[in-house]
Design goal:
With 80 residues, this protein is an all-alpha fold. The protein has helices at residues 3-15, 36-50, 56-61, 65-74. It has 4 helices and no strands. The model has no long low-confidence stretch (mean pLDDT 96). It comes from Chlorobaculum limnaeum.
């Protein structure tokens, strides 16, 4: 499974949303499912899945799927 697929799966499971809305344009607080509580669930899931510990600034900056990829790349998670 690619990192792109792993990331999408985490968003689907953490937010409880269908796969068709998880794309680079999906942003924090633009859907009811991505609220502050779901955001922390998402962060925890990302940390576990990719075996990283995100900085507080990165957690706050995690504002979209696209931004999640950018942040994960800082932790040497590669997206092709």
């Amino acid at each position: 499974m690619s990192n792109e697929e792993r990331l999408k799966k985490i968003f689907i499971k953490s937010l409880g949303v269908p796969s068709d809305i998880v794309n680079d344009q999906l942003q924090y607080n633009t859907i009811p499912e991505w609220d502050s509580i779901a955001h922390m669930v998402l962060v925890a899931a990302l940390e576990i899945e990719f075996n990283i510990m995100m900085d507080t600034d990165d957690i706050i900056d995690l504002s979209s799927v696209k931004k999640a990829k950018e942040i994960l790349q800082k932790y040497e998670v590669i997206f092709s």
